[in-house]
Amino acid sequence: MSAGSGDDVTVTICPDGPLLVRGPAQLRTVDGRTVEHDRTVLALCRCGRSRLKPLCDGSHRLSKFRDPATAEQLDHVLTNATPLPAEGSSAA
Ligand code: FES
């Protein structure tokens, strides 16, 4: 396993929990505005229950969110997932 440099950004998918973004990641809104922060780790909600979205507030535990996030599952999704049509497209 590579230790990586201090400039690496990594995303760790926590089983039954958030995405942990480590490293000097910029947080931007969809319109391109950068949201300043001084965190070295961002926990991004992926259960949809957080009251602090996009950050995780621990609500995934109460909601019993389940997603094991195994390497096999991620590989399957990345290999087989079909991208959603772009918003406004006329895909049937
Ligand atoms: S992943 Fe933690 S509140 Fe959603």
From TrEMBL:
GO molecular function: 2 iron, 2 sulfur cluster binding; metal ion binding
Species assigned in the record: Microlunatus antarcticus
Official protein name in the record: CDGSH-type Zn-finger protein
Taxon lineage: Bacteria, Bacillati, Actinomycetota, Actinomycetes, Propionibacteriales
GO CC field: cytoplasm
Domain Iron-binding zinc finger CDGSH type: 28-66
Keywords for this protein: 2Fe-2S, Iron, Iron-sulfur, Metal-binding
InterPro entries, per database record: FeS-contain_CDGSH-typ (IPR018967), MitoNEET_CISD (IPR042216)
